Structures are given as structure tokens and as C-alpha cells.
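Reading a protein record of the kind used here takes only a little practice. An example makes this concrete, so a full record is given next.
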Amino acid sequence: QVRLVESGGGSVQAGGSLRLSCAASGSIFRLAAMGWYRQAPGKQRELVAAISRGGSTNHATSVKGRFTVSRDNTENTMYLQMNSLKPEDTAVYYCKMTLPNNYDYWGQGTQVTVSS
């Protein structure tokens, strides 16, 4: 059983920065594709950024140039550096692990609130 634990969320003013972490249990992290998603109240969950097991990254247009996804396979952890935060970035942020057999695990989420 894989467990994903997000941390690093909080409340910041517009223009501020936060760094989210997603720590994974087990030893399969290095084999998995990882992703950050977010869900704002009344909206569907959306992909924010993804990183393959080889380190290739993909960022949503709305966060390009402001957010950066990375991973440390020695620490079984994925990160999301968020700079120049905007009120519209306010959401619960979730991490997802996708195994080679396409099975997904989700974390419990961490709240990010950006005030204007």
C-alpha cells in the first residue's frame, strides 16, 4: 500500500511563494509518474504539473513561468515550487502517483489560500 502525504500549504498574500511537498511511502516512487492537481470550490479538479519517472515535466498554461515541479527519488518526494502566487491559485492541492500498471494513488490534499 502506498501512502502520499502533502505538506507546505498555507495562506499567503498575492505575489508570495510556497513550496509544496509530496512524500511517498514504499520503494516504488522512482518507478512512478507523479502529478500535482488542484481543486477550487465549485470547480473540477485540474492538472497543475506533472513529472515523469525520467524527470520530464509538464506545466499547465496558467502556471507556466510561476510554478516548477521537481522530484527527488532518493527522498521519495515530489515538490511544487509556487512563485508569484495569485488569488486564483487558491485551492486544495493534491498529489497523484501513477504506477507503471496505470494504478493511481492520491494524497489527502493541502490547502493553499492566496489573498489579494
User: Anything to note?
Assistant: The chain has a mean pLDDT of 97. The radius of gyration is 13 Å. DSSP finds no helices and eleven strands in the chain. The first strand starts at residue 4 and ends at 7.
